[in-house]
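Course assignment 3, question 2. Fill in each field.
Student: A.L.
Task: Predict the tertiary structure for the chain below.
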Amino acid sequence: MKDIKAEIEKRVEFIKQTLKDAGAGAIVYGNSGGKDCTLVGVLCKMACDNTVGIIMPCESSRNYGIDREHALKAASLYGIKTLEIDLTSVKKEFVKVLEPAFADGIEKNLNSAKFNINPRLRMITLYAYAQAHNALVAGTGNRSERYMGYFTKWGDGACDFNPIADLTVGEIYEMLRALNAPVEIIDKAPSAGLFEGQTDEDEMGVTYKEIDSYILSGQAGERAKTIIESAHKKTGHKRELPKVYRLLD
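Answer field:
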């Protein structure tokens, strides 16, 4: 990234203009203690003092441990108001209610369906807060994840605006270092924290370094290239609006 300071300033102005256009007076985002939400939180705070990060643990012990610790540390460092809303009991009750729908389901699909409830419950929470406080929901997905389709449709992929959607993971780290983000957040392995021991790179089968290289230069080893191209093709529907039937004009 050539001029990080200028990039930060442009993104802050983008956020300010987005709020103005919407007539909104606040911003809310999910603070999971990870790299992306930390950067989004800082940028939003620079643009709007009324920025709130919500920590939303949901089943995974990591959500109650290292994720929470890092989320609170980042919020304290940058003076971001924080709320904690535990969604574990809601998730458990929801799964019980869904038992008839899950009956006779395909095991692999069932596991994914249950894991994806977590980010969807979190997005319900963020939009409930946003509507009650005349706020906009800030997205925290980066370019690398978007290219791979590594996000939950109508979950963490939903938002009103996203100030980092064009940044690869490598660029996210560059900007975080420039903003003096906690080293623990920069150094830890990226994880959605959906289940115990989960990491992004293990789940995707390819490293962010390989993904970034492919996105920026088209260069990657054959194995990585195959995985990246396949994931991008399969997840195209996540990056598009829903198909609708309409008569041609």
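Instructor remarks: The two ends are 44 Å apart (CA to CA). DSSP finds 14 helices and four strands in the chain.
Grade: pending
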